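Recall from the previous lesson that a structure prediction takes nothing but the amino acid sequence as input. Here we apply that procedure to TRAP transporter small permease subunit from Defluviitalea raffinosedens. The sequence below is the only information supplied.
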Amino acid sequence: MKKAYYYFSKVEEFLACLLLISVVTLVFASALFRTAGHPLNWSSDIAQLLFAWSIFFGVDLSMREKSLIKVDMLLQKLPVKARKYLQIIWQIVIIVFLISLIVYGIPLCINSIDRKFSNMNLSYSWATASVPVGSILLTITSVVNLVKMFKSEDGTYAAEGGKDLC
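The prediction returns the following tokens.
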């Protein structure tokens, strides 16, 4: 199971990097073509679509690698046992929030089927699907982190993998 999760993480890291590079390249190319007098009208829609997906992949990678910004000045002043319980409670709150994003994101995705991007005949559901799919990925990561917290003595957990993102 750990090996499958490792490969899953590597695929997700590759997709996040690919999406981010694609968004930057597309926006840059769009600016060049607009300057040259040949605007790429569809580029902003594709960039928006790719950006929506890259956000969720990036947040999941950050959560997995423990590289999200947090202010733990007060948390560090608590005893180890209290710190562990508080971090576990916060992780459970995060999981509940992500489940609500899944529950409300699926109908949003379904309701967006008929909505099209302005310059293309592509359903906006491709963008809104990033919410439930990304939330599922984040829920998996949060559950893995929660298990690691329960197993640790102080409620913290070590990030797996290296910091070789993009």
